[in-house]
TrEMBL record:
Pfam families xrefs: SnoaL_3 (PF13474)
Protein name: Nuclear transport factor 2 family protein
Gene3D superfamilies xrefs: 3.10.450.50
Chain ranges of the SnoaL-like domain: 29-128
Domain of life: Bacteria
Organism name: Shewanella youngdeokensis
C-alpha cells in the first residue's frame, strides 16, 4: 500500500521500482505492528540500521535485539524518491510520526537471489536551517 508517494525513479525500471516501494511500505507496516519476523526478513543478512542517536549504528542482529522487546513504531510515508544503478537502489523518504513529527529515511536496497533487501537504512530528523545552531549547541551540551 502506498501512502501519498511522490516517486521520482530516475533510471529505475518500473518493475524494480514497484518491488522497492512495496518493500519500503511493508517496512513501515511491519514496524507499526511489531511484526519483527517479517520486518527483519526485509534486511540483507549483512544489513545495517543507523538510527537518530549517534550510538545507533547497528548490524541486523544488534538492531533485532533492540527492536524485538518493543511494541514497534509507526511512520507514515509523505514522499519518496528512488534511483537505481544496476542491482542497487538508493532512496530518500520523508516520513511522519506522532512521536517525532517529520523524519527522513535514507538507504540502499540490494537485489539478491531472494529479491530486494535493505542493505542500509538511516533514520534522521531533518533540522530546519534556522534552528540548526540552537539544536547543535544542545547536542554539544548533552555530549559533555
Amino acid at each position: 500500500m502506498l501512502f501519498g508517494v511522490n516517486t521520482a525513479a530516475q533510471a529505475t525500471s518500473e518493475h524494480d521500482q514497484q518491488q522497492a516501494a512495496v518493500l519500503l511500505d511493508n517496512l513501515n507496516i511491519y514496524s507499526a505492528n511489531a511484526d519483527w519476523d517479517n520486518y527483519f526478513d526485509l534486511y540483507a543478512d549483512n544489513g545495517i540500521f543507523i538510527g537518530t542517536d549517534v550510538t545507533e549504528h547497528w548490524n541486523k542482529a544488534q538492531f533485532e535485539k533492540y527492536a524485538r522487546p518493543t511494541n514497534g513504531w509507526r511512520y507514515d510515508l509523505t514522499s519518496r524518491t528512488m534511483a537505481q544503478h544496476g542491482d542497487v537502489i538508493w532512496f530518500d523518504e520523508i516520513l511522519h510520526s506522532d512521536a517525532y513529527g517529520v523524519s527522513r529515511g535514507t538507504g540502499t536496497l540490494i537485489k539478491t537471489a531472494k529479491g530486494w533487501k535493505i542493505g542500509q537504512y538511516h533514520l534522521s530528523f531533518p533540522i530546519p536551517n534556522k534552528l540548526a545552531k540552537s539544536i547543535t549547541q544542545q547536542i554539544k551540551a548533552a555530549a559533555k
